[in-house]
């Protein structure tokens, strides 16, 4: 028995696999006691804790702690003279013409940023030895200020962490109760401000993240779970719970990336290597691009970036995701100019959409899908909630009256605006990265992905939509398909030339040995390990880099790979020397996977056996169509049919537009071929 859970803003998803059979359930998320929603999901599934051999978990606890400012009071110890790096930050304003721009305030105020005597040069050589004479008095001061966590970021520690290690050890001896993390434990990259900020944010979330993971582990152990949980990381891998507690900022996008890696895994299973992955949940919509069967990993992650704020950079590898505040619970509202908006505010699970009947009065995207017939009222929320249809109609009618339109017209307007927001997000991850979305298939999942996917694909010119099995809980399913992963990134400046290739190999092998030792400490054998080498490189004299996979240590191959990647990202290539900036070693520790069994093949392509009746659905305002309703559980491999159609399952609903064609693959995935406008 293998189990994975994903705690989202609205629902907590659980997937379990036993003997090739997959089952899934959803339960309400229960803030602030998130573990209760997880326990409720396990109870609802009927899984016995004693039968579980593997347990994976993803959550939004770190990003929520940051965005809601619920971390602990944090101090920063840094090299003398560099106290204000955190406040000076960068001058890279998101919009140079926006006069309302203000630098985001640092998470550590100036009176909690203290300096220590020490200095390294850029090679890591000691210029001034570490002076710990003032440390006892400094710690006494921080105790008096109520500090609970200390971040250490010393100049050039990415090259030589010796002073940081000595300082952390001294703090642990003098004040063992305080949480401490040093910058070399978070990032071995240069960039003083980004490294300082990353370390500060990691310290800020460390106590609440540790408490959350400890509490989760204790609750699960008390219920009879034997193995310690694995935790989903932002880099697209899982990690033992102890490693997650030691590096909490690596969990900043723990929840969303499971689905993106699940899309990669399912794409490999069915032979689809070019995918736009879209996850629409109750609160947000998230998308990522998969090219040549691989997700993009970014080291330049930023939270809270807006037109008036540069946000806060975090130096941790994160699956490249674009996220917007549009999901099933996104609230429709009128702005000051009287224009209709959808999101980013969400009704969450409490009170939830109006249809939940829990006191919500503002219409949401889910309410619009119900009101237009896309969602079956008899199967709403898996049949567990009888929707308040009168309340939904009233909410749309009242808001529509303010705009001079009917309730139904307003509901269609809500869906159109929500779709437009999601199309913009998909363009950001594709067109803005130099990719044509028409060259990809759209794989949609999450509770709302299948409801919107066909209309989004038609708008973008994407030829095919894929709705994978267990789409409503796909992020949790994805965690069952992943290996343990570590990313070792080290700043290493050198020219990419004939003399430098051997040096690259030596440095990568050194990193590889160190990473293998970390895996060995976690109980992994050498034969379980697999390594990938990447470099971050640029033309000599440039500022920004592109990431290049080192397939072969042959100079012509490496240079051509760099030039091609640079041209794809920036539209040009130069006849100029190439400089390596960072080495990026990706290490995987293999764990057993949970493959899904193929479906029985249908003796006929006809899908009549899965047909469960019809109902009126409005694909266009005031144009109801009598639409066939299919039960997904009864769709077999090889079946096909034309839209319009609605395909229902316990955790989501798939909308097939008139003219689109559906085919069922060997594993139950729905391949919807999109009718191009004018055909």
Automatic annotation (TrEMBL):
Biological processes annotated in GO: glutathione metabolic process
| Entries under Pfam families matching the protein | Hydant_A_C (PF19278), Hydant_A_N (PF05378), Hydantoinase_A (PF01968)
**A GO CC term?**
cytosol
Q: Which part of the chain is the Hydantoinase A/oxoprolinase domain?
A: 195-486
Q: Which InterPro entries match?
A: ACX-like_C (IPR049517), ATPase_NBD (IPR043129), Hydant_A_N (IPR008040), Hydantoinase_A (IPR002821), Oxoprolinase-like (IPR045079)
Question: What does the record give under GO molecular function?
Answer: 5-oxoprolinase (ATP-hydrolyzing) activity
Residue ranges annotated for the Acetophenone carboxylase-like C-terminal domain, each copy included: 502-672
Name used for this protein in its record: Hydantoinase/oxoprolinase family protein
Domain Hydantoinase/oxoprolinase N-terminal residues, every copy: 2-173
């Amino acid at each position: 028995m293998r189990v994975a859970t994903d705690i989202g803003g609205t629902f907590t998803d659980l997937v379990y696999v036993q003997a090739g059979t997959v089952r899934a359930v959803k339960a309400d998320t229960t803030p602030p006691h998130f573990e209760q929603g997880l326990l409720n999901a396990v109870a609802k599934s009927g899984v016995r804790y004693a039968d579980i051999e593997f347990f994976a978990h993803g959550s939004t606890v770190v990003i929520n702690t940051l965005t809601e400012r619920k971390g602990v009071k944090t101090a920063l110890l840094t090299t003398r003279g560099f106290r204000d790096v955190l406040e000076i930050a960068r001058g890279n304003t998101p919009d140079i013409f926006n006069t309302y721009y203000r630098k985001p305030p640092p998470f550590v105020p100036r009176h909690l940023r203290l300096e220590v005597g020490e200095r390294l040069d850029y090679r890591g050589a000691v210029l001034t030895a570490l002076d710990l004479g003032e440390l006892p008095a400094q710690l006494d001061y921080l105790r008096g200020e109520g500090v609970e966590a200390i971040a250490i970021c010393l100049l050039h520690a990415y090259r030589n962490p010796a002073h940081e290690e000595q300082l952390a050890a001294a703090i642990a001896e003098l004040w063992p109760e305080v949480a401490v993390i040093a910058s070399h434990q978070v990032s071995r990259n240069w960039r003083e401000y980004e490294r300082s900020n990353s370390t500060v944010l990691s310290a800020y979330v460390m106590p609440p993240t540790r408490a959350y993971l400890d509490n989760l582990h204790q609750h699960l152990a008390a219920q009879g779970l034997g193995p310690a949980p694995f935790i989903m990381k932002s880099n697209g891998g899982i990690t033992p719970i102890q490693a997650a507690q030691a590096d909490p900022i690596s969990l900043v996008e723990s929840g969303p990336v499971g689905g993106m890696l699940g899309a990669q895994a399912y794409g490999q299973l069915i032979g689809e290597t070019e995918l736009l992955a879209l996850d629409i949940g109750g609160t947000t919509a998230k998308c990522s691009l998969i090219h040549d069967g691989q997700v993009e990993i970014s080291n330049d992650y930023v939270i809270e970036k807006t037109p008036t704020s540069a946000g806060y950079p975090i130096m941790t590898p994160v699956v490249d995701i674009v996220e917007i505040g549009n999901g099933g619970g996104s609230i429709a509202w009128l702005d000051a100019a009287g224009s209709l908006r959808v999101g980013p505010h969400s009704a969450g699970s409490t009170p939830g959409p109006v249809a939940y009947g829990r006191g919500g009065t503002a219409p949401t995207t889910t309410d619009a899908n119900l009101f237009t017939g896309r969602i079956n009222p008899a199967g709403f929320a898996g049949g567990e909630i009888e929707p308040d249809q009168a309340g939904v109609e009233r909410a749309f009618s009242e808001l529509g009256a303010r705009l001079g339109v009917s309730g139904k017209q307003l509901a269609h307007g809500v869906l159109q605006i929500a779709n437009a927001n999601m199309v913009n997000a998909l363009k950001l991850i594709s067109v803005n990265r130099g990719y044509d979305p028409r060259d990809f298939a759209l794989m949609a999942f999450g509770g709302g992905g299948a409801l919107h996917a066909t209309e989004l694909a038609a708008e973008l010119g994407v030829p095919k939509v894929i709705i994978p099995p267990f789409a409503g809980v796909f992020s949790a399913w994805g965690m069952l398909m992943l290996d343990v992963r570590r990313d070792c990134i080290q700043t290493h400046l050198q020219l990419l030339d004939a003399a430098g290739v051997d040096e690259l190999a030596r440095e990568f092998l050194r990193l590889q040995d160190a990473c293998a030792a970390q895996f060995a400490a976690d109980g992994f054998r050498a034969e379980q390990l697999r390594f990938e080498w990447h470099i971050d490189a640029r033309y000599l004299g440039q500022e920004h880099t592109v990431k290049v996979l080192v397939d072969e240590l042959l100079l012509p191959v490496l240079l051509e790979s760099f030039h091609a990647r640079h041209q794809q990202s920036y539209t040009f290539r130069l006849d100029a020397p190439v400089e390596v900036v960072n080495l990026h070693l990706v290490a995987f520790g293999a764990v057993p996977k949970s493959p899904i069994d193929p479906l029985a093949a249908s003796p006929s392509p006809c899908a009549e056996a899965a047909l469960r009746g019809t109902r009126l659905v409005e694909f266009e305002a005031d144009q109801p169509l009598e639409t066939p309703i299919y039960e997904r559980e009864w769709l077999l491999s090889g079946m096909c049919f034309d839209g319009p159609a609605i395909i229902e399952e316990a955790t989501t609903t798939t909308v097939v537009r008139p003219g689109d064609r559906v085919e069922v693959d060997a594993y139950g995935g729905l391949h919807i071929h999109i009718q191009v406008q004018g055909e």
